[in-house]
Every structure is written in structure tokens, then in C-alpha cells.
């Protein structure tokens, strides 16, 4: 009786809540309803162009879709040659975000068409750049004004984590190198764990697929929101040849790169070296944090069923912190060897300064991070919001993602890192730099751990010869679409 008597009240409340949610679902940021048909017309490419891009990528030949253009242009169908006002292409990492990735892909394909929504498990971003965009550029060269305007107006959405976003940005960066501008601006749908790139540009730290109409709101923001810029950083590793390096996806073996001659190198150089190169957008780190991340990634690859969900991930991370001795340094045989000062020298170049400067490292530092964004480790800000007096005293400037500078800080033991991550204290500020040179010499260490935008690896070290890591700004910036929080 009590149960049945309370039901109408609950249903009434639920009905009111549903009506409120429905009203929110159909509204944009300004509170104006987003008409589905109008939005679809703004972002959807003409059929002949969608099919041409699809065929060019499938055949890996930019001319494979030309017959679609020929059939429309010869038929004189002018309506088929009208460029959309704000065309979009979406890349979805269907493995990110649990089941959300695949569901999001399906809903976007239903709304925009399969030819403008790509699953990164099947279509790689460099294939779109090399064949899809090139197909449009080829049509434009043949006098197709629709293809020309579509190419110029195009924006990209990446649905995935920070690694996925960086992958797409790196492929789009090839357009700069090839002189194929403009480079499409990039918006983000956060499907990863940390989502620090997404947070930094106002797209939030997570995405809920529960509100189906949120798709319209996101698409509307992606085409109407203002633009920002993002620095990216080139990492080159030069190490003695012979040692094997199990590189993450972001690092590629490359030809020998000459070291900067402005900085004198102490000690002998090996006769043969191996070089690796990669680009990062968020951070690069050396030390205990990378060692913990490496252990976690190894476990996730070997036993993926153990690392499901954020709570499980945090428990595993905590376990590795303890196992590696980051918290319980007395348990280690010789914890002083864990200080990076024993194996590392760091030189920097300050902004607009041609000279290298040696930075003295505190003996207690066990992890060094070079940070590009204000968001790190799922939204933390270890650099902190520094007061003007402190900035002036240290010779620092306010940190931004497009200022040509990296913020370099250190973490001591796990307790110090925990307080930093809880925003109770700031990390140990070391420097702001426009370029960095790390020199590592093994000594009693045979290896150390590094990570770049969340991709860790084990770096072998040599007792006789140094390993060098050079970090410099990529000469062009990525163009980002700002979300609602920016």
C-alpha cells in the first residue's frame, strides 16, 4: 500500500525531470534550439564528394573517386556542387570510452553519413590526409569550386583520449610541411582516461553518451566555437648503437641527427648511434612516474581484465607506486641512487636566448616533467597558479599552451607527488624553457623510464657513453577549436 501510494509522486517527479532534460537536450549554449535539419545541411558534404573521398582512401589513389566528380559536372547538376557552410569530418577511437566509443560512432554515422565519420581501427588519419584531403585538392585544381570551398572550411573532430588526439594532430601537421594549407582546426570529444588536451581547450574531462541530443550540441560547438593555438614539441633521442629500444607508437626510428653544436659535449661520443624521433603535445617525463606508468601498461597488455575502469586503474597505480619504492624509500637497498641527479644533466634555452644554461637539480628529485599544458594527470595543475611576485622573482612568465615555453618541474617521493596531485602544494619549479637537452649516463643504473603523452618506455643506458635527448618546439602550431569553458 505504501509503495503504490508513493509511485504517482515519483512518476510525477520523474516526468518533470525528463521534461527539463529534454528542453536542455535541444538547446545550444545560448539556450537556442538547434534544428537537426539545419545543422545537418551545414556539416554534410555533397554525396559525390563523400563518395569520392571514400573511394580514394579505399584504393589509396586520389584519382579513384574522380568518376563521381565527372558524373556530376557533366550532368550539370549545380545543386550537387554547393559546398556546405561548415563541413566536418570525425575520427572516432571506437575502443576508447568503454562501449561509448562504438555507440558514438554509430550515432554520428546515422547523423552525418558513414563517409564523414571514420573509425580509427579501420581508417588511419594519415590515410585521410594523403588520399582523402588530396582528392578534394585534386578536384579543386580541376576547377571544382565546391571541393575547394569544402577543403578550406573543413573542421575535424577527434573522439578519443589524448593519445588519439595527438595522433590526428601529428598527421594534420604534415599539411604544414607539405605546404597544403589551411590546416583544419580540431575539436575534441573526450573518451580517454586523463583527457588533459580536452580539458585544456574547454571540452571537459569526460563525455556522457546518455544524452543523445548532446551530439547536436557538440557538433554545433565544433563548427561555431572560436579557435586557439597549441604548441607541439619535437623529441630526438641519440643513444649508443647496439641497445634495443622497445619504442611506443609516438617514437619512430630515424636517421642520425646531429647534436646541437652550441652546447659543448663532455666525454667521448660513440662511433655509431641510434636515433629516435617523436612529437608530444602535453608532457614528457623521466623517472619514477614513468616507471609506474610503464608497469601499469605492461600489466594492462598482459592481463587486460584487471585494468577495467578508473577505480581499478587507480588501485593498480597505487600498488605500483609502493612496489617501486616511491613511497617507502627506506625499503630500498640504496634509495639515493634513485635521485635523477646521479644520472642526469639538464641544459635549457630560455625564450629568445641563444645560449644553453645548466640547471642544477636538487638531489631529492626522482621525477622530472616538462609540461606544455596547464592540465596534467586528469586535470591537475602541478605547476600551479603562481602569483605575479613569484613569477617576477623566478624570472617566469604566466604559463600558456601557445607561448613557446615548457614548464619543467620535479617530483620528490610519492608523498610529495600525492600532495601535488591533490593541489595542496605546487611541484618543485625548475625552469621554463624554449629548448631542453637531457644527458644521461648510466653509472650504476642500467636503465631508466620515460614517457611522452602517457606512452611509457624503458630507456637503456650506457656506462661509457651518454644518451642525449633534445626537445625543441615544432616550428608551426596546431589549430584547436575551443570548447564552452574557454
Written description of the protein model:
This protein has 14 helices and 19 strands. It has helices spanning 2-25, 36-43, 47-59, 66-75, 100-112, 125-141, 145-153, 162-177, 196-200, 214-224, 288-302, 310-323, 388-394, 414-421, and strands at residues 88-92, 117-119, 155-160, 186-190, 227-230, 233-240, 251-254, 273-280, 283-287, 344-349, 357-359, 367-371, 406-411, 428-433, 435-440, 447-452, 455-460, 467-473, 478-481. The strands form four sheets. A seven-stranded antiparallel beta sheet has the order 7-8-6-18-15-10-11, with no helix packed on it. Strands 14-13-12-9-16-17 form a six-stranded antiparallel beta sheet. A four-stranded parallel beta sheet has the order 2-1-3-4, with helices on both faces. Helix 5 links the parallel strand 1 and strand 2. It is globular. Residues 1-31 and 327-337 have low confidence and may be disordered. Phosphorylates the second messenger diacylglycerol (DAG) to generate phosphatidic acid (PA), another important signaling molecule. PA is required for plant development and responses to abiotic stress and pathogen attack. This is Diacylglycerol kinase. GO terms for molecular function: ATP binding; ATP-dependent diacylglycerol kinase activity.
Number of strands: 19
Q: Outline, from the CA principal axes?
A: globular
* Whole-number mean pLDDT: 83
Q: What's the helical proportion of residues?
A: 25-40%
Task: Please work out how many helical segments DSSP would assign.
Answer: 14
GO molecular function, one term: ATP-dependent diacylglycerol kinase activity
Subunit structure: Monomer.
Pfam family, one: DAGK_cat
Keywords: ATP-binding, Kinase, Nucleotide-binding, Plant defense, Stress response, Transferase
